[in-house]
């Protein structure tokens, strides 16, 4: 606030002085104008006086000539005639519009006066002196001269009035300017006094701010030096500018040995200084999530021994008057060798215990299952119920152990992922098939929706099925009896999104931040009520991450929760296409069996490209959008029939090769198709050979 007032005052002072300058300058201009007006008036009055004198001299000369007949008396007249026009021209040039009328009248009187004189002179030359003297005696010339004198007097009075008016206006303006200048100077004095007060207050505030900054810097130095972790202050190149005592304790170097050298000396590495500089360029500022970047390195002590470290490093931007001048980095180095050793021991313990528990639990579960199945004879209801409880809890323990092993494998990087090109549709259908019995047990229905086109991703089918199974099982467990769990697949830009929607109670606010953590459950009764281990969502998040995807959730409008998984789409959305097969013919294969689709696509490798569809909707979309060379159609598609696609294709292309590859042995369907191959009798090789022969025949006929 004070800064803004100070800036305003500093702006007003020069503006006020500029105003004073403009006022004084205006006054000087006014004085110059007044002097010019006075000079103009004096010159005009002088010219009018000369004009009056000329006319008087002319009249006197003509009268002398008439009375004496001596022509030498005409010299004043001749001078008057010679100078008169020049005087009138000067007067007109300096006159105003109001004076020109009077000046024109004076010119007319002058013309009349000179004309009268010329008549008298002509009479004298012609010997009529008596006539000329009689005319003079009549006083006609005197009347004209009096009118000339009167007109000149009016013009002189007008000039005097104009001069008085200009002088009066100038006097008033000078008085106004004097008052304004006095006020402005007083205002500037007040502003300067105010600026002095503000500057004084600002200096005091800056002094206090400097003291606070020094105190803060001292506190920061104390925190820096007393930190248990090793602390380094680095320049933009990664050279050490400062270190705390913990670095010496941790690495065994003195401060003199480290300061000024590159931080790479503190780690065992294969990096160059250029590599380190590039890595530093990726480090950001510290934020709400902590340091700009965290990474584990192997530290190297002065004696050559190594230990595991975790480095948290953040960029610190330097500014000068609001402009960025450079970057520094603050690095915190922590010895995590004890933590790593504990993690390895924990992992080994969990793995050993889990494996040791899995074998007896499998035997227990199998034995209980045999007893429940009647292997030892009929069971009464009470015994069956107790054995059933034991069997269910045994299964629960096995699932828990499997989940623990899975999460440990994922986090340690030991879990292998078989990444291949796959379709989202078959993945979701396999999950639904596996979860149908579980859904029926909870009186829940599963509904699914797909886009009209197939979505291809790169992923491990088994692991992604495990991910979806965790999401769907959670949705089923939290849905009310009679509810519907919806699975929706769609495309969002370059990703395939799978949404699992339920109408449960939703995710409590207090649980949302840790929902993807290990052993995370909304409340202590969740595990007992729902039968979960608290590891499913943690495993799902890790699997999605390993596929370069993301997982999240949101409240569902009207109640419930929507979990979604976003997975990158494969660059090539067709199945079984090698990079060099772009010129091969494209074959559409419609079948609801994912395994059959995969086997057939592999069999065509090198001969044709295969784009697969599991529903009529997908197949119709592909047939409309892509130029296919042949179609392989399965007739039995659950509640749908592949023959409707056959009719659609024939309506648009009567010569396209169509092979019916189906389990339905009915020759009546061969009428619209080119070949009918029954799955139980025809091999995959026969299918490939028949399809390629039909494609080649069509190409020969077209040629």
UniProtKB/TrEMBL annotation:
UniProt cross-references to InterPro entries, sorted A to Z: CHASE3, CheY-like_superfamily, HATPase_C_sf, HATPase_dom, His_kinase_dom, HisK_dim/P_dom, HisK_dim/P_sf, PAS
Which part of the chain is the Histidine kinase domain? 352-571
Q: What is its EC number?
A: 2.7.13.3
- TM stretches of this protein: 184-203
Alphabetical keyword list: Kinase, Membrane, Phosphoprotein, Transferase, Transmembrane, Transmembrane helix
Task: Provide a Gene Ontology MF annotation, just one.
Answer: phosphorelay sensor kinase activity
In the record, which positions carry 4-aspartylphosphate? 634
Q: Which CDD domains match?
A: HisKA (cd00082), HK9-like_sensor (cd19410), PAS (cd00130), REC (cd00156)
PROSITE patterns, per the entry: HIS_KIN, PAS, RESPONSE_REGULATORY
Which domain of life does this protein belong to?
Bacteria
PAS domain location is 216-269
Q: Can you give the residue ranges of the Response regulatory domain? A: 586-694
Q: Name one Pfam family in it.
A: CHASE3
EC class name: transferase
Reactions it catalyzes: ATP + protein L-histidine = ADP + protein N-phospho-L-histidine
The molecule here is called: histidine kinase
What does the organism's lineage look like at the top?
Bacteria, Pseudomonadati, Pseudomonadota, Alphaproteobacteria, Sphingomonadales
